[in-house]
Amino acid sequence: ADQKRFQPREPPPAPLGIRRQSPTGFMQLRKMKCMGDVVRSAVEAQSQTLSGDLVMAPKVSSQWARRHETPPDLQLEYRPRMNFLLTISSQSALVGEYVEAISQELRNVAIAECCSVFFVDEVREEMWCVPADGDAFSIPRGQGITGLVAKQGATVHAPDASAHTEWEDSIVERLGCTVRSMLCVPVKHCLDRDSTVGVLEIVNKQGGGGFSAQDIKVSEDIARLISDSFYRHRWKALESFQSRGDSEAQALISQTRADKGAEPSAAKDTSGKNLAAGNVSEQLNWVDVPLPDGRVVSIAQMRSLNFNALECTGDQLVTLIEPVMQHTGVMDRCQVHPEKLRNWAHAARKLYRDNAFHNWYHGFSVFHMCYYQMYTSARFGQFSSLEAFALLIATLCHDLDHPGFTNAFMIESASPLALRHNDISVLENHHANLCCELLRRPATAIIGGLDAASLKVLRRYTIKCILDTDMAHHGEMVQKLQDPTSVDDRQLMMSAAVHTCDLSAQVLPWHIASQWEEMISTEFVNQAHEEKAAGRTPLPFMNFPMEDIKLRGKLQRDFLDFVLIPLWDPFTQLIPELRPCYRNLIKNRSYYHHRHLTGEDPAWTTKTKRVAF
What we know:
Elements: H1 2-5, H2 26-50, H3 62-67, H4 82-89, H5 95-110, E1 112-121, E2 126-130, E3 137-140, H6 144-152, E4 156-158, H7 169-173, E5 182-188, E6 196-205, H8 213-225, H9 227-242, H10 247-254, H11 314-327, H12 330-333, H13 338-351, H14 360-376, H15 378-381, H16 385-397, H17 407-412, H18 416-420, H19 426-440, H20 452-467, H21 474-481, H22 490-502, H23 510-533, H24 549-574, H25 579-598
Antiparallel strand pairs: 1-2, 1-6, 2-3, 4-5, 5-6
Helix pairs in contact: 4-5, 5-8, 10-24, 11-13, 11-14, 14-16, 14-22, 16-20, 16-22, 19-20, 20-22, 21-24, 24-25
């Protein structure tokens, strides 16, 4: 009987993704396994360029090997299909296409009847399931066998799924198939292996019984292979599912998308070769600055997230700019004249209007966050003095002469600024223009000590950073930051630094963040009033009564969910020293959710009275 079982015969058709060899006996297979080492190096180079995780092709199919009792020393290996690799590595693949590619690959290699993909949202404590057939649905994180895997981050194999202690009839009914056996595999965060961002649920081994050890291994290989792309697609999926039927959230998301082709993208700069020669191209050189006594505000307080610009006077904030420039070594390396620097700081303050939100306090707060990032992060410490100078200039000047209205408002009202800048990044072009004008004036020319080459580079950096604060570029920037290699793109990281600083009010402690929420809400309500007066319909997330605390809580929670968290999570994954910013953001999100449910702030929270300006 054993001899008959080992007689050569034609194996069944191979599933997609499985490469077969002619079954001429196990001696030949063992020889091929030894020769495989030569092939592995060539395939590894190809696989790593496409996926980043090496997984190899089997010498025989798992189905054929089980039928012929594969010896223990013969390790079957997996090689993904090329179409699968192309789909998961594509930046333009839709969520449905991405999920279907994963499901099909898992069904083929594990020989399963169906497969579902779960995206985990650890902030909302829920999981969104995308089944093979049917609509997406959500369940609480931690519910059922899949929830157990999401919580514990370990693979669970249930040959008899209904007998498992975490079995949930309500979840299984929504999968659209009768479940016998189940294999659930966690998908880990591409940078934080302790974090589970998804679960692959593989259901019903064809032919009955449970899944084999080889099925489990290959499924875990696929989970590792897709971890990078899964992290990116998770944001797309959660955004799409959680905003369904919510007009305010959908209107908010639409403001973070740009029309393709409206503006050319800058080339990726990873080398730093565009830096000018001389001291300005050297890394930041921190300089000790004498601190005044405790009776006045000092830059020592600015090295903390607890610094609150709203507790200072406008003049006090102006006096802090020079010590920051001194401490970063910019004044020395870039030969900044002290008197011109003071003139420049006063002139920048005067160019900010007395808006509810986009005022001098906002401009300085963004400048403060830039200094905080430089001081806290080793990554920003690797920037050159010229790059640091450009960042500090861009953050302080990024909203000069802001009218208190959005780009869309300026375009719809056919304002002179919109006509001048051809409806493209209207306000950002205006801010950048005023910034460069200040740098050219003799009395405020703080760049006068730079040579011509350095001036050109600094101007390019500064303009690009300010233009990239346009919310229309937000979605594209978030996608780029989800790629772990983006940390090597100097211009992207500079633009991301300014953009995150611009959107940093809600990463501050609650007693500060809640004040900024009231200020931006006031500015939104003012714009909605102007639009109604002009006969136009305001955007839903701007059209609300200030006294409706519940609605304001919901709108601000939406802003965190769909704009801030997708930005600050990948940014602080790339720069771990800034992770406290993200933790504050998550705390504040829970407080806004509390507002939405109860109409009031948590009992223990307090507010600090803001100094009038």
